[in-house]
Amino acid sequence: MRSYLEFEKPVADLEGQIQELRSLGEKGEAVDVQEEVAKLEAKANQALLELYQKLTPWQKTLVARHPDRPHCLDYVGALIEDFTPLAGDRAFGDDPAIVAGLGRFRGTAVAIIGNEKGSDTKSRLKHNFGMARPEGYRKAVRVMQLADRFAMPVISLVDTAGAFPGIDAEERGQAEAIARSTDACLALGVPNVAVVIGEGGSGGAIAIATANRVLMLEHAIYSVISPEGAASILWRDSARAQDAATNMKITAQDLLRFKVIDQIVPEPLGGAHRAPEDVMTATGQAIEKAFADLSGLGADEIRRHRRDKFLAIGRTL
User: What's the 3-state SS for the chain?
Assistant: First the structure.
């Protein structure tokens, strides 16, 4: 069963009718449903096109959080060969919210770091909905240092509402761990490419997304705080999350204009969850091109490129 967002109700109604007609045809009813199905499919596609051509920032937030959207491990499975996961931060323990390891991307040895949200109740609890604790960021630092030592490019797949805000995370130095992970990104002498595949939430995202190239899926979001959190602070009313989403400029289109990100990866009509294979293929092509653009640069040039990119954000020409 496909999950529909609230604003997709017109499409849900049409696709429900299509399913009913197909069921009639499969039962051998003495009616030819093909013509009517084709008409309804055309209507559903047109309705979907009209909806997704004018998504509001809040609607994009809902699409970015869609439960059927492909997650980090889906991309790893589709794009990375011979993936070997690495666990633990060598200080406290392992954090399943951060997936990290080594593998091959189109023939090249790479390191992979990403937020994994999970795809069902059991896996979401295991991965803490992609919200990492300090040991997760320290694991990321360990893998980045390993990649630097062996001259392996780094791919980061960002999908988190933010770093875990629990007491245990604060006790183990959450802010310090985020800062050190961000610093490790900046210090890399190898190219790193980050892709915001769903939510890019605050320091929890920037800790692994401080990259030479920052890519973002068409309907992903990237912000310093969630719309609900911003509404609670600004208006003391989380119900005004829609207003916050509009004013925060969290969409890929806004962030490309502000040069916070470098490229938008297009999604299939209706969002990444409708055609996961297509969006993962497009993401792989975008990552490959980003690495090709950075090939031939020495370690100092890579660091300078990354530093200049982030220092340029917010500057007027």
Answer: CCCCCHHHHHHHHHHHHHHHHHHHHHCCCCCCCHHHHHHHHHHHHHHHHHHHHCCCHHHHHHHHCCCCCCCHHHHHHHHEEEEEECCCCCCCCCCCCEEEEEEEECCEEEEEEEECCCCCHHHHHHCHHHCCCHHHHHHHHHHHHHHHHCCCCEEEEEEECCCCCCHHHHHCCHHHHHHHHHHHHHHCCCCEEEEEEEEEEHHHHHHHHCCCEEEEECCCEEECCCHHHHHHHHCCCHHHHHHHHHHHCCEHHHHHHCCCCCEEECCCCCCHHHCHHHHHHHHHHHHHHHHHHHCCCCHHHHHHHHHHHHHCCCCCC
